[in-house]
Amino acid sequence: MPKQWGSQFWLRNAARTSMRCARTSPTSSTARHPEGVHGRRISPWLLRSAITIVTLMLSAVATQAQPGTTDYSKATTKTVKLRGNLTLLLITTPEDINKVLILDGPEGLLLVDHPEAVAGPIVKKTLDEFGGKPVKFLINTHWHYDHVGGNEIYGPDAVIVAQENVLKRMSAAQTPFWTKTPIGPYPQKALPRIIYTDSLKIIFDGEDIELDHYATGHTDGDSVVYFKNANVVHVADIYDGKGSLAGGADIVGIAKSLTAVRDRINDDTIIITGHSADVSNRAELSQYVKLVDLTIDQVRADIAAGRSESEIIARGMPDAWRAWFPGNKLPIAADFLKSIYESLTHTNRIDQ
Quick one: which of 53, 108, 262, 336 has the most CB atoms within 10 Å? Predict the structure, then answer.
């Protein structure tokens, strides 16, 4: 899915005025009986109204994330040489940043992800710079349309690899909350040919590649892709790097997956994220995992204390998040807190 959380970051600032009266300090005991930051009691009606406004605004942005709305005619591209025979293609449009990871070797090319099929000519122009080598493998990190657009282009000749739930999602029409119209089913040529449940290894072009599915996170078919020799890992949309929040079907699952990645990599590992412009590293990932775990613990404690979903959202993010965002500005992040609440109460939809 496009940068659902990242694209909403500007909206949080706009919504801050609506929520200012409803928010309380993360350490305040007034979350159960909300009061203003200056001690003035806020009426339940005003609190509900503020939360409703933010929720509606967030929903409005989410519904803009539609297939076919990205303007690739205004795209700019940049290639970044990583390590070994790995190159990262960045495609920047007014709406988003998409990435294609390219493994180049004597046997041909292996790609990780590909934006919508309409971006095919842009991707091909870069691939032609590798001597016109054929695409032999195409790995899908998950089923979202902005990551599987290359399947119908390269599917007839390349081997498409993905976690088994990607095949499940692409084989039938999907109606996640963030799109107005159903997505799929995809044609047979665009479906993964090799699927796995928990882990899979590919030896190609002198590289030892491992795909791991740790948990339902951004989707129920996430793959983390390790390149052992290059010491590079592609985590896709379960993590967007410094200054962003990664959302999806299950935030608790995202935390579990990222913890597994953190514990496996080292300080020299290059982390390729889903949609951010920069690569990341273990130090940043460790900071993010700690913050997500802290927030999950806060919401879990609030649930145990009997606080409602609206009270949990009104309480806001832990203050420790300030250091993660530019200018130490703490976002409201109602959508993020709502997703954690739904993950912990098992009311979340995993078909996202």
Answer: 336
